[in-house]
Specification:
The complex is a heterodimer. Chain A has helices spanning 3-34, 39-49, 52-63, 68-79, 81-92, 102-107, 111-119, 126-149, 156-180, 182-200, 209-227. By secondary structure, chain A is mainly α. Chain A is globular and about 55 Å long. The two termini of chain A are 22 Å apart. In chain A, 52% of the residues are buried. Chain B has one domain (7-102). Chain B is mostly helical. The chains are: A mainly alpha, B mainly alpha. Chains A and B meet through helix 1, helix 2, helix 3, helix 4 and helix 5 of A and helix 1, helix 2, helix 3, helix 4 and helix 5 of B.
Amino acid sequence: MSVPARFLLGLRDGLPIGAGYFAVSFAFGIQARAIGLTALQAFALSGGNLTSAGQFAGLAVIQAGGGLLAMALTQLVINLRYCLMSCAIAQRLAPGVPLWHRFPIAFGVTDEIFAASVAVPGRLRPAYSYGLIAISWPGWAGGTVLGVLAGDLLPGSVTAALAMALYAMFVAIVVPAAKADRRVLGVALAAGLLSVLCALAPALRALSEGTRVVLVTLLVAGGAATLFPMKEPADGRA
Amino acid sequence: MDAPEGVWAHIAVMAAVTYAIRLIPLLILRREIRNPWFRAFLHYVPYATLTAMTLPAAVVSAPHPLAGAAGLLVAGALALRGHGLLLAAAASSLAVWLAQLALPS
């Protein structure tokens, strides 16, 4: 497949990401305006971070008048899951891809872009990642600005419905893989169960969602790796 | 409301920390990992992460839990039948929107 074709494929697969981002960042823009950020500040925040939970938490820190260290720690904890995602992406990148590609690709490691990146059969190529980013980033940054400027244009029921697109995408990635491989099915079931338990358990409920995701991932993927280690050389997907 | 102080510094710190978290692993893990445990671990990471992000968040964050559940079921059913991301996402959004209309808020 040619580079433009991969880029276009990325754009297409990124369409639901961009739509979902638009809805979520619209809500973010409304909240940013509520605590006194300008449209330019909100645009820079969304455009430079490209992360949902981390940004909402960041707004809370700004609003509470927290220091820069508190901000750094908050972001570190909430966004630590990206570290695991980047590790997984590093292993899926096609061999021989020049090093500099890793800088823009890293910028685009979000829950959703990661999800689409690991769903491609075979190795990940930079052009595909750029297609995903090229359609997701404007959705995220643009939705934020519109949220600040025109927060009351979209009814809440529409934003809520669009926000579902992101979860639907996660489901559409996990389900076929689980259908094809019982070990993946086991991983998904265990992760879902554990995550719900963590959200309900009185002692663990206080964990932020980001921390919970990291914890569940480490436990479940670690357990699965102990039960089913992979000896054969990688061809992208086992 | 007045703009809170130091917003630009906060924005810069946020962006720097978040980018570092994403970039460092990509720069360190340049070679293919041989260790069978770690390779399997990274293979399973996406599925564990994606499921943990979806459950219970998709149900809890929906305007009505049943609307969220409906969206998940539609996405799951379409994915099971081999449909792509775009259709699953669109149909699931539509399902949530319709469910909101049907359910008492």
